[in-house]
Specification:
This protein is an alpha/beta fold. It is built from 14 helices and 8 strands. An 8-stranded parallel beta barrel has the order 1-2-3-4-5-6-7-8, surrounded by 4 helices.
Length: about 325
């Protein structure tokens, strides 16, 4: 890069074994990653030989790899309050596989999101969503137990010598500020302590307010995830949103760079598909990018209102 970029640039990669092998069959992908001094947060969708082979290739090329922990879809896929035991079991299996295969990792990533099955049920029958959510308000005990379980998992990972990254939805910031757990109870996510927290500020999902949302949360983020350039897990019934084009990605990268030296991009496969990696090698990070004042005010107002509601809910125990 000819102009100052972030100290850390990481690409998420979330592919099944076959497409993953095909992605790295092209030598140019590794060459671009090396030139960008980038890392890869690799979704551990399986513990098979193809994935191990890709990790070894990245190790040999000097590209740092983070083990992004994921579960089978029938266990919720992402980590949340209801699958702490499965998350711990998956980590144990991954650790044994890592030792057997002789793999080297730069860290371990915990993706904290709602149960993918809840998302699917909501898409299948939206009218049943509210009745299903309301009983969760009384689940303070479940949240406390999950916190304890994930704290133990984090300490176990650290004890094995790995840095722990967490990938969080941005509303966790508002919950902390309000000292509330309302949204955690409703969605099943939780505030997990980690060594590096990445806020997933994916503007493609919140058009036309994406840049303004990124601007709003960016100053409160230690690391920022931008996207989506394509890819991701398939959720039947979910309305597909257009991937970021080059101009949108460039804008988001520059916005994120204003507040952090640690930028993540979702996803590597999307960037390869759109031929973004080559363009990033001489990307000018210094061009100014800003949101639109009218939309900035709307986002700020929405966060103030949401913050007030969360503060009012802080009486909920747990």
């Amino acid at each position: 890069m000819t102009t100052p970029g972030p100290a850390r640039l990481t690409f998420f990669c979330e592919l099944e074994a076959g497409p993953l092998t095909a992605l790295f069959a092209s030598p140019s992908v590794l060459e671009h990653l090396q030139a960008l001094r980038a890392s890869v947060s690799l979704g551990v969708l399986d513990l098979g030989p193809e994935r191990a082979g890709v990790v070894r290739r990245l190790n040999a090329a000097g590209v740092p790899v983070i083990a992004w922990q994921l579960l089978p879809k029938d266990q919720g896929y992402w980590f949340h309050q209801g699958n702490a035991a499965q998350a711990a079991g998956r980590y144990a299996d991954w650790r044994a596989w890592t030792v057997t295969e002789g793999l080297v990792w730069d860290g371990v990533g915990l993706d904290i999101e709602p149960d993918i099955r809840d998302m699917q049920r909501a898409l299948d029958n939206r009218w049943r969503l509210l009745p299903a959510l309301l009983p969760r308000l009384a689940r303070g005990g479940r949240l406390r137990e999950a916190r304890a379980s994930y704290r133990a998992l984090v300490e176990r990972i650290r004890g094995d010598g790995y840095r722990v990254d967490s990938y969080q939805l941005p509303f966790i910031v508002d919950e902390r500020q309000a000292r509330s757990t309302l949204l955690q109870r409703l969605t099943g996510v939780l505030d997990v302590p980690s060594d590096r927290e990445v806020l997933m500020l994916y503007t493609s999902f919140v058009r036309p307010y994406g840049p303004e949302l990124l601007e709003s949360y960016g100053p409160q983020a230690h690391a920022v995830g931008v996207g989506v350039t394509g890819g991701g897990v398939d959720v039947p019934g979910l309305i597909e949103v257009p991937a970021l084009d080059w101009e949108e990605l460039a804008r988001d990268l520059r916005l994120a760079r204003r507040w952090t030296e640690d930028v993540h991009v979702f996803s590597l496969e999307g960037c390869v598909r759109q031929d973004f990696l080559a363009r990033l090698r001489d990307f000018d990070w210094t061009v100014e990018a800003r949101g639109r004042p009218a939309l900035q005010r709307r986002v700020a107002t929405a966060r103030r209102v949401a913050g007030g509601l969360l503060r009012a809910s802080a009486w909920l125990p747990g």
